[in-house]
Amino acid sequence: xxxxxSEKQRQAIIxxxxxxxxxQVPGKIRDTEREFALQxxxxxxxxxxxxxxxxxxxxxxxxxxxxxxxxxxDTGETFPTNHLCSSQVLCVNALWPFVVDPELHKRVLxxxxxxxxxxxxxxxxxxxxxxxxxxxxxxxIGEENYLGEVGDKFRKDGVRQRGALATSADFVFRFRRHxxxxxxxxxxxKYTESYSNKxxxxxxxxxRVYSKSFERWKADNPGLPDYEHFFVEPFYQLIRSSSNRSNxxxxxxx
Length: 254
Hints:
The protein is α+β, with helices and mostly antiparallel strands. The protein has 7 helices and 8 strands, in the order H-H-E-E-H-E-E-H-H-E-E-E-E-H-H.
């Protein structure tokens, strides 16, 4: 049994305690009814009640799609997936408190980053939340098209969308360090993902998009394997994150 299998079983049990009677009715995933899915129209309940309105507004205002989104057939409005093992939903549920509360942000995330002196707002991330900009951003692609993702499998009009058809960091935050420097953290969030033993992906678009960033990375780390070795999961996830981080660091701090 994989971790995903055990989580599906666990979620099928605890959903009866966590959600409304309507949402507890098993929903469908790819046209098949599943015990680990909320009723089809109740995907919004996948977000914690206390953060739900704010998180939904954040994604809607920034036109960020929810992975495997559900839809209100009457209004056409989209909501989070009804799948209870969603990495994206878990990421938002876990990190949203740090979006709005800088003191909590520092108290918790400062454990992992003891050099943090103060969290900084993500001032380029759309509208404010209450009286400040977010202290954590989701599905972040930066202000510029650092990787030149246009055409092929990306949007051909050159307009990028966070969370779709572009390399997005699952979450990002920044802070001022005790030495006065500003540090940017880009994160990849996983929950129940697993990867089989497959041959390296020969997708030429992927190879082209990340090649320049990889060359810079290898220049600083000559012991790295050849580029092709990174096109097997989960190493592909690492090179995507490293490439995005390298480009944004050079832009914002170079």
